[in-house]
Amino acid sequence: MTDTRLVLVVEDDPILKNLLGHTFAGKYQALYASDGNEALALFEQYKPAVILLDLMLPTMGGFEVLEALRKRDDEGQTVPVIVVSNLGQEGDKEKAMALGASGYMVKADVAIEEIVEKVEKVLGAASMAS
Fold first, then answer.
1. Which long-range contacts (CB under 8 A, 24 or more apart) does 60-66 make?
2. Is the confidence at residue 2, as pLDDT, over 80?
3. CA distance 97 to 89
Protein backbone atom coordinates (compact mmCIF):
# COMPACT_ATOMS: atom_id res chain seq x y z
CA MET A 1 0.00 0.00 0.00
CA THR A 2 1.33 3.42 -0.96
CA ASP A 3 1.97 5.89 1.87
CA THR A 4 0.80 9.30 0.61
CA ARG A 5 3.22 11.14 2.90
CA LEU A 6 6.32 9.14 2.05
CA VAL A 7 8.89 10.61 -0.37
CA LEU A 8 11.88 8.61 -1.58
CA VAL A 9 14.85 10.89 -2.28
CA VAL A 10 17.47 9.22 -4.49
CA GLU A 11 20.48 11.50 -4.28
CA ASP A 12 24.17 10.83 -3.70
CA ASP A 13 25.05 14.43 -2.75
CA PRO A 14 24.91 14.55 1.08
CA ILE A 15 24.41 18.34 1.14
CA LEU A 16 21.36 18.26 -1.15
CA LYS A 17 20.01 15.21 0.69
CA ASN A 18 20.30 17.04 3.99
CA LEU A 19 18.71 20.19 2.57
CA LEU A 20 15.75 18.26 1.19
CA GLY A 21 15.40 16.42 4.50
CA HIS A 22 15.11 19.69 6.41
CA THR A 23 12.69 21.10 3.83
CA PHE A 24 10.39 18.05 3.98
CA ALA A 25 10.46 17.88 7.80
CA GLY A 26 6.98 18.22 9.24
CA LYS A 27 5.29 17.83 5.85
CA TYR A 28 6.47 14.46 4.59
CA GLN A 29 8.38 11.49 5.78
CA ALA A 30 11.46 11.11 3.60
CA LEU A 31 13.54 8.04 2.84
CA TYR A 32 16.99 8.44 1.36
CA ALA A 33 18.92 6.31 -1.10
CA SER A 34 22.43 7.09 -2.30
CA ASP A 35 22.42 4.78 -5.31
CA GLY A 36 20.04 3.01 -7.66
CA ASN A 37 20.18 -0.40 -5.99
CA GLU A 38 19.32 1.11 -2.61
CA ALA A 39 16.49 3.08 -4.23
CA LEU A 40 14.88 -0.05 -5.66
CA ALA A 41 15.23 -1.89 -2.33
CA LEU A 42 13.59 0.98 -0.44
CA PHE A 43 10.82 1.19 -3.03
CA GLU A 44 10.16 -2.52 -2.63
CA GLN A 45 9.95 -2.21 1.14
CA TYR A 46 8.02 1.07 1.57
CA LYS A 47 6.15 1.87 -1.67
CA PRO A 48 6.57 5.66 -1.41
CA ALA A 49 4.02 8.03 -2.94
CA VAL A 50 6.63 9.93 -4.98
CA ILE A 51 10.30 9.57 -5.90
CA LEU A 52 12.84 12.36 -6.41
CA LEU A 53 15.48 10.80 -8.64
CA ASP A 54 18.96 12.00 -9.50
CA LEU A 55 20.36 10.57 -12.74
CA MET A 56 24.07 10.54 -11.94
CA LEU A 57 24.33 7.82 -9.27
CA PRO A 58 26.91 5.21 -8.32
CA THR A 59 26.29 1.50 -9.15
CA MET A 60 23.00 2.01 -11.03
CA GLY A 61 22.07 5.31 -12.66
CA GLY A 62 18.73 7.09 -12.56
CA PHE A 63 17.71 6.09 -16.08
CA GLU A 64 18.16 2.42 -15.13
CA VAL A 65 16.18 2.92 -11.89
CA LEU A 66 13.33 4.54 -13.81
CA GLU A 67 13.35 1.75 -16.38
CA ALA A 68 13.36 -0.93 -13.65
CA LEU A 69 10.43 0.72 -11.86
CA ARG A 70 8.31 0.97 -15.01
CA LYS A 71 8.88 -2.72 -15.82
CA ARG A 72 7.48 -3.85 -12.46
CA ASP A 73 3.96 -5.26 -12.10
CA ASP A 74 3.02 -3.16 -9.06
CA GLU A 75 3.01 0.53 -8.05
CA GLY A 76 6.42 0.90 -9.70
CA GLN A 77 4.62 1.27 -13.03
CA THR A 78 2.74 4.37 -11.90
CA VAL A 79 4.59 5.95 -8.96
CA PRO A 80 5.34 9.60 -9.81
CA VAL A 81 9.07 10.04 -10.42
CA ILE A 82 10.45 13.57 -10.54
CA VAL A 83 13.95 13.69 -11.97
CA VAL A 84 16.17 16.25 -10.23
CA SER A 85 19.50 16.23 -12.02
CA ASN A 86 22.46 18.33 -13.11
CA LEU A 87 21.97 16.90 -16.60
CA GLY A 88 20.29 19.74 -18.45
CA GLN A 89 20.55 18.52 -22.03
CA GLU A 90 17.25 18.28 -23.90
CA GLY A 91 18.10 14.69 -24.87
CA ASP A 92 18.41 13.68 -21.21
CA LYS A 93 15.05 15.27 -20.42
CA GLU A 94 13.40 13.58 -23.41
CA LYS A 95 14.84 10.19 -22.42
CA ALA A 96 13.61 10.54 -18.82
CA MET A 97 10.13 11.58 -19.94
CA ALA A 98 10.01 8.74 -22.49
CA LEU A 99 10.88 6.31 -19.69
CA GLY A 100 7.92 7.60 -17.67
CA ALA A 101 9.20 10.45 -15.49
CA SER A 102 6.46 12.74 -14.15
CA GLY A 103 8.70 15.80 -14.26
CA TYR A 104 12.26 16.94 -14.85
CA MET A 105 14.07 19.65 -12.95
CA VAL A 106 17.65 20.81 -13.44
CA LYS A 107 19.28 21.35 -10.04
CA ALA A 108 21.11 24.49 -11.12
CA ASP A 109 17.87 26.08 -12.37
CA VAL A 110 15.53 25.48 -9.42
CA ALA A 111 15.28 26.55 -5.82
CA ILE A 112 14.69 23.89 -3.18
CA GLU A 113 11.20 25.35 -2.62
CA GLU A 114 10.33 24.68 -6.26
CA ILE A 115 11.21 21.01 -5.79
CA VAL A 116 8.91 20.85 -2.75
CA GLU A 117 6.13 22.60 -4.69
CA LYS A 118 6.48 20.04 -7.49
CA VAL A 119 6.24 17.18 -4.97
CA GLU A 120 3.12 18.74 -3.43
CA LYS A 121 1.56 19.24 -6.85
CA VAL A 122 2.27 15.63 -7.88
CA LEU A 123 0.99 14.25 -4.56
CA GLY A 124 -2.13 16.42 -4.80
CA ALA A 125 -2.85 15.16 -8.31
CA ALA A 126 -2.22 11.56 -7.22
CA SER A 127 -4.59 11.81 -4.25
CA MET A 128 -7.32 13.31 -6.46
CA ALA A 129 -6.95 10.45 -8.93
CA SER A 130 -7.42 7.77 -6.27
1. 60/35, 60/36, 61/36, 62/10, 62/36, 62/96, 63/95, 63/96, 63/99, 64/36, 65/10, 65/36, 65/39, 65/40, 66/96, 66/99, 66/100, 66/101
2. no
3. 13
State the pTM of this model: 0.91
47-100 pLDDT per residue, tens: 999 999 999 999 899 999 999 999 999 999 999 999 999 999 999 999 999 999
Q: What is the CATH number of the domain that holds 77?
A: 3.40.50.2300
Residue 53 is part of which domain span?
A: 3-129
How distant is the alpha carbon of residue 99 from its chain centre? 13
- How many domains does the chain divide into? 1
